[in-house]
């Protein structure tokens, strides 16, 4: 990356965001959407016998809008990932930019998706109290900020130990243990998820939705990191064409 400017990294980040958005949209359409349809069927059954409310936005528009939103979010996150990579590349372990970019994306997935999903798992449309949206959003965002700080602390612990002459395996192990202990601590400190699961929502439906939602985020972060890493990897120099004299001599 030595010859790549910040603008070059951002352009590669934008391309990585497009690829990640497409991957997330495909998972959303083929994996998440069928589960949402099952949740909506529960809502419709619950509302049976009540006056039908006018639908402001059609279901097809909601699906397309969700895929476009996934693309926009992926591009924004990829640009942030590219900026962070440009700033902390020298602190990340790894011998190649591909390894560093995929590691940074993995830390992003852990901080922004996995840890929040374990503490505050996503619920399908038939679950959740609208009156508690504000409180749940604040808890969710503060948890993400804490998880991101823990991830960065784990990287710093590894870097400090390497700088002090400790072996790379020991420093890496200390960094991983710091991250695991930190994630466990914030999982215990942050308040539990509020709201009860309605009795008419099958447990299997909730489980399927949570797994599908996490799979969508995993596809987005994995594609983002791998694509950015590939785009930052220098192309091998082309072999010089053999001259006529060299060919004759051979």
Automatic annotation (TrEMBL):
<dbReference type="Pfam" id="PF09490">
    <property type="entry name" value="CbtA"/>
</dbReference>
<keyword id="KW-0472">Membrane</keyword>
<feature type="transmembrane region" description="Helical">
    <location>
        <begin position="211"/>
        <end position="232"/>
    </location>
</feature>
<feature type="transmembrane region" description="Helical">
    <location>
        <begin position="63"/>
        <end position="86"/>
    </location>
</feature>
<protein>
    <submittedName>
        <fullName>Cobalt transporter CbtA</fullName>
    </submittedName>
</protein>
<dbReference type="InterPro" id="IPR012666">
    <property type="entry name" value="CbtA_put"/>
</dbReference>
<feature type="transmembrane region" description="Helical">
    <location>
        <begin position="12"/>
        <end position="32"/>
    </location>
</feature>
<keyword id="KW-1133">Transmembrane helix</keyword>
<feature type="transmembrane region" description="Helical">
    <location>
        <begin position="138"/>
        <end position="157"/>
    </location>
</feature>
<keyword id="KW-0812">Transmembrane</keyword>
<feature type="transmembrane region" description="Helical">
    <location>
        <begin position="98"/>
        <end position="118"/>
    </location>
</feature>
<feature type="transmembrane region" description="Helical">
    <location>
        <begin position="169"/>
        <end position="191"/>
    </location>
</feature>
């Amino acid at each position: 990356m030595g010859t790549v400017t910040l603008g070059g990294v951002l352009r590669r980040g934008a391309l990585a965001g497009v690829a990640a958005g497409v991957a997330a949209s495909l998972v959303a359409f083929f994996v998440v959407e069928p589960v949402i349809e099952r949740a909506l069927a529960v809502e419709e059954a619950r509302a049976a016998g009540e006056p039908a409310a006018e639908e402001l936005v059609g279901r097809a528009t909601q699906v397309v809008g969700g895929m476009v939103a996934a693309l926009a979010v992926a591009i924004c996150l990829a640009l942030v990932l590219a900026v962070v990579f440009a700033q902390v590349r020298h602190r990340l372990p790894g011998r190649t930019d591909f390894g560093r970019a995929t590691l940074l994306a993995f830390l992003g997935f852990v901080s922004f998706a996995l840890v929040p999903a374990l503490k505050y798992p996503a619920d399908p449309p038939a679950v959740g109290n609208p009156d508690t949206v504000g409180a749940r959003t604040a808890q969710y965002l503060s948890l993400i900020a804490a998880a991101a700080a823990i991830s960065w602390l784990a990287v710093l612990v590894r870097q400090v130990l390497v700088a002090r002459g400790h072996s790379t395996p020991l420093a890496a192990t200390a960094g991983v243990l710091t991250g695991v202990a930190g994630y466990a601590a914030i999982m215990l400190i942050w308040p539990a998820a509020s709201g009860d699961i309605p009795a008419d929502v099958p447990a299997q439906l909730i489980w399927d939705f949570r797994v599908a939602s996490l799979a969508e985020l995993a596809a987005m972060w994995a594609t983002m990191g791998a694509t950015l890493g590939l785009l930052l990897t220098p192309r091998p120099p082309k072999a010089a064409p053999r001259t006529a004299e060299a060919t004759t001599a051979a």
